[in-house]
Amino acid sequence: MKWEDNVRKVVPYVAGEQPKEKNVIKLNTNECPYPPAPGVNEVLVNMDCKEFRKYPDPDVTELREVLAHRYQVNPEQVFVGVGSDDVLSMAFLTYFNSDKPILFPDITYSFYDVWADLYRIPYEMQKLDENFCIVKEDYLKENGGIIIANPNAPTGLMTPVSVIEEIIQANQDVVVIVDEAYVDFGGESCLPLLKKYDNLLVVQTFSKSRSMAGMRIGFAIGNEKLISYLNDAKFSFNSYTMNMTAIAAGVASVKDDAYFTETVAKVIQTRERVKKELHELGFVFPDSKTNFIFAKHQTVSGQEIFDALRNEKIYVRHWNKPRIEDYLRISIGTDEEMDTMLGFLKSYLAQKQG
Ligand SMILES: *Cc1c(COP(=O)(O)O)cnc(C)c1O
């Protein structure tokens, strides 16, 4: 059809499956297996629906204030959005406006190239080394901006903050975004670097460590001037991105730090145990500092194990992409879920090798 010539075309991001059937073990989208803080349920149960006739606070002041307090920054340094996907997308639109390419790793969150395509931002992917590590020198050339997920997804690997700092320091004429979606699971945050660098934007989410993927809350912290540009773009796009329930639920979550710490510790404990058991079953993997393990079996192909798990209604994530086609990204579920998966893998692999 003729009008199609005028359509903005993009190949969309493919999210992990949300299976409709019951009784599945869902380890494919890095959700937290535990519920959100009890206070979240309380505010939602007591929500006064009469309030819904009004628009929500476009500045999301209350949530920005509790986040600012939690992370020891000014509220003017905090931006919140509908999941960090919303925050990151807005950040791409706002900060990546150069004719020079933005840089990010070849194996990373597969939304980055989609946003770049959508907004017509030129980009150049930089190859991770054979151990899936960032090659720092690749980020020291001319560019229009940088985005790095740290810890990285889907590899789970953490780049030392000292290396990230060298990259930020060498690129002070562009914005460097550090996507810290998984940092709470034992990683080290770049937030302390904000005191030194006004070109750094740190992005985090409530979807993983705060068990609230369904509420869609993400946030960014940066220099006040940097954040003000992000707000200008947001208020030119949609003033009311955050709805009243999400704001109230988000505030309740941030206020319960004890629950947050305890939940994250449980996930880490399960992860460390699963690492040992996967290793014994013949899997190899980069050392994860996230709520997932990116594992490859030494003899059986990724597709084969993926299909076998799937037959058992155990969902993990698999990409048919060069360099990672033999890897499975396995989210950390409850101990019971992980035991079911490990039990199945043990008998499946024994039978294959037997
Ligand atoms: C999950 C994830 C996000 C986005 O999560 P939201 O649910 O949109 O907050 C962003 N970056 C990475 C690397 C992720 O894994």
- Give the overall pLDDT as a whole number: 97
The CATH superfamily of the largest domain is identified as: Type I PLP-dependent aspartate aminotransferase-like (Major domain)
Bound ligands: pyridoxal-5'-phosphate
The number of domains is 2
List the helices and strands and how they pair.
Layout: E1 25-26, H1 38-45, H2 61-70, E2 78-81, H3 83-95, E3 102-105, H4 112-118, E4 123-126, E5 145-149, H5 161-169, E6 176-179, E7 200-205, E8 218-222, H6 224-234, H7 244-255, H8 257-280, E9 283-284, E10 292-297, H9 302-311, E11 314-315, E12 327-331, H10 335-353
Parallel strand pairs: 1-11, 3-4, 3-5, 5-6, 6-7
Antiparallel strand pairs: 2-8, 7-8, 9-10, 10-12
The protein binds pyridoxal-5'-phosphate.
Structure description:
The chain has helices at 38-45, 61-70, 83-95, 112-118, 161-169, 224-234, 244-255, 257-280, 302-311, 335-353; strands spanning 25-26, 78-81, 102-105, 123-126, 145-149, 176-179, 200-205, 218-222, 283-284, 292-297, 314-315, 327-331. Helix 1 packs antiparallel against helix 7 (244-255) and helix 3 (83-95) packs across helix 6 (224-234). The chain is an alpha/beta fold and 354 residues long. Bound molecules: pyridoxal-5'-phosphate (PLP). Pyridoxal-5'-phosphate is lined by residues 30, 83-85, 109, 149, 153, 179, 181, 205, 207, 213, 218.
Question: What descriptive keywords fit this protein?
Answer:
binds pyridoxal-5'-phosphate, alpha/beta, Aspartate Aminotransferase, domain 1, 354 residues, 3-stranded antiparallel sheet, 10 helices
